[in-house]
Amino acid sequence: MEKKTIGVLVMSYGTPESLDQVEAYYTHIRRGHPPTPEQLDTLQSRYEAIVGGFFPLRENTNKQVAALEEQLNSAYPDLQFKCYQGLKHASPFIEDGVEQMAKDGITQAVGVVLAPHYSVMSVGGYIKRAQEKADEHGLKISFVKSYHLHPQLIEALVRRVNTALERFAGISREQVRVIFTAHSLPEKILEMKDPYPEQLLETSKAIAERTGVTSWQFGWQSAGQTATPWLGPDILDVLATVKKEENVENVLICPIGFVSDHLEVLYDIDIECQSVAKELGIRLERTESLNTDPLYMETLAEVVYSQLEGK
């Protein structure tokens, strides 16, 4: 008997594939409004600073999608899984991924976002776009909304925190301030009773409990430059505060809101935060990104499989 093929739409924010695509990418983020020459220059220089023209995020995402397909097919041999990419701001767009599934004759699909925490403004937006396109094609699709407390995800992050803390040789854990971070969103999500901030704190607490870390807090990063206020405090302000008010000299940043190495990790933390930390006299380390960690792939495979009807 032929196995049923389940389509898996793996969604993420997207990134340009090369420097000459940055302008089109930024224009899409700005809803069709091209960036000013200054804005474009700033973004291009950030990419150049981390990658020298090579874009790790797209490569990381491709590897994650391939690894997830492999994990699903080996863990659940009763079905055939085929993964498709759908990006928010770059090609193949979310709609392209759904369209391709329909062309390939897929009749049942699951959508999952490469972000463990739900917000109506992030994951919610991805789901809305995918659902609308699926409805056009009569494709049956259900969605994983969040997986922020999945045991394998927490285990992967716990291991990273423990490994990174070992780098502070001769310094007790109590002397290292662990700061968990995620991408800031506009403050208006608070009025909407959005679960995003609460889910991030739940993940942070779970990791702190498992690692025995008592000196920890949460900080936001990578806020957009818009007229409306975004969630704070920003990580750069947090670094200044912990140094000036508590004389903290050792900091470990654990960016739990990001699942792979990209601009918000490689530039915002590794370059921008490091620069501020040096000025303040803080030793700053960062946990490794999840990328294609087998535990993260297991997490994604399990939440996708359990989303199938009757599982």
From TrEMBL:
Primary gene name: cpfC
Source organism (scientific name): Paenibacillus thalictri
GO cellular component, as recorded: cytoplasm
GO terms assigned for molecular function: ferrochelatase activity; metal ion binding
Protein role: Involved in coproporphyrin-dependent heme b biosynthesis. Catalyzes the insertion of ferrous iron into coproporphyrin III to form Fe-coproporphyrin III.
Keyword Glycoprotein included in the entry's annotation: no
Substrates-to-products reaction catalysed: Fe-coproporphyrin III + 2 H(+) = coproporphyrin III + Fe(2+)
Protein name, as recorded: Coproporphyrin III ferrochelatase
EC number(s) stated in the UniProt entry for this protein: 4.99.1.9
Pathway the protein acts in: Porphyrin-containing compound metabolism; protoheme biosynthesis
